[in-house]
Amino acid sequence: MKLNTAAESAPVTGLPSPSKKRLNLWPYWFALPFIGCYLAFQCYPLLYSFYLSLHEWNGIGSKTFIGLKNYVMLLTKDPLFYKSLFNTVVIMALSVPFMILLGMGLAYLIFNLTKGRTLAQTINFLPYITTPVAIGFIFSFMFDWQTGIVNMLLVKLGWMTEGFYWLMDPWMSRVIIAVMIIWRNLGYFMAIYLAGMTAIPQDIYEAARVDGSTGLHTFRRITLPLLRNITVFLVVTSIIGGLQLFDEPKLLYGGWTASTSGGPDNAALTVIWKFVNDSFITGTRFGYGSAIAYTLFLVIVLFSIFSYRLSAGKEEKE
Measuring CA to CA, which residue among 176, 146, 149 is closest to residue 162? Predict the structure, then answer.
C-alpha cells in the first residue's frame, strides 16, 4: 500500500506545469504588436480599397454603391489605361533584361578582381542609394535639347548638326526612362549576384580547373546554373517593381506644365502615374483609383506567375 501511495503522489514529468503553460504565451505577446500593426496598416487598407472600388466617392460626400461599374469603365471606356499599361510593359521590357545581364556580368568581373574589389562595389552601388529626385534632375539636364551634355557631345563629334528633342520623342522618352532604371538599379543586381557567387563552394571551381575547364566554360556550365534561383528571384521582383513604376517618369517630366503630364503623347504615363492623376490630381475619384490599383494587382500576379514559370520551368523539368 505504501508503494502505491508513493507512486500516486509522484509528479508526472511528461505534463507541463501551469507556470510553463503561462510562459508559452510570451512569444504571442511579443508578436502581438507586429500582428496588430500589420492588420491595421496592411490588411485593413487592402480590404477597404477593394470596398471603395465598388463605390463612387470623392472623399467628402457619401459613398454611392455602383458595383463593378468602375472596373467596366476602366476596361472598356478608358483607352488611356491601356496606353499606360503598354508604356509600363515596354519600359519594363527595355530595362529588366539589361539589368539581369549587366548585373551578372559586372558581378562576375568584380568577383574575379584581385585589387580594388571593395572600391568597385562601392562605386557601382552608389546610384542605388541616390535619391530619385536627384536622378530625375540629372537625366533631365543630360538630355535637354539646348544645354544637355548628350546633344553637345554628339554635335561636337559631328554625328548631329543640331540638338535633338530627346524628351519630346515618344519612344526616346521610354528609352531614357529605361536607362534611368538600369543606371539606378544596376548596383543592386550586382550586389545580389556577387553574394550568390561568393556563396558557391570554391571546391567546385577547383575541380573544374583540374579538369581543364576555361573561364567562359566554367561560367556557363557552373556559375550560371548555380545562380538560377537568384535569377528567378530578381526576374520576379523586377516584374513586380517594374509594373509599379512611378518615380522615374514622374520626376523626369515633373517640371513640365500640367498639359504635358505623362510625357509626349502620354508615352511616359505609367499605370501608377495614372492612378495618382485620377485619384488625387486631375480628379478625386477614389473609387475609380481603387479599381485601377486592384486591376494592376491582378496584372502583377499574372506577370509574376508567367515570369516565374518561364524562369524556373527549365529547372523543374530537370
Answer: 146
Please report, rounded to a whole number, the percentage of residues in the chain having pLDDT higher than 70. 88
What is the DSSP track for 226-272? HTHHHHHHHHHHHHHHHHT--HHHHHHSTTS-GGGTTSGGGTT--HH
Q: Which residues are CB-contacts of 125 (< 8 A; sequence separation ≥ 6)?
A: 187, 188, 190, 191
| Contact (Cβ atoms closer than 8 angstroms) between residue 250 and residue 84 | no
Cβ-defined contacts of 107-115 (< 8 Å, 24+) = 107/189, 107/190, 107/191, 107/193, 107/194, 107/196, 107/197, 108/193, 108/197, 108/219, 108/223, 110/190, 110/194, 111/194, 111/197, 111/198
Point out the least confidently predicted range of 104-113, 156-165, 305-314.
305-314
* Cell numbers representing residue 142 in the block: 543630360
Q: How confident is the model at residue 316 (pLDDT cuts 50, 70, 90)?
A: low
Q: What is the set of domains in the chain, with CATH numbers?
A: 71-312 (1.10.3720.10)
Question: What's the N-to-C CA distance of the chain in angstroms?
Answer: 69
pTM of the model: 0.83
The answer to whether 182 and 95 have CB atoms below 8 angstroms apart is: yes
Alpha-carbon distances of 179 from 96, 98, 302, rounded to whole Å: 10, 9, 26
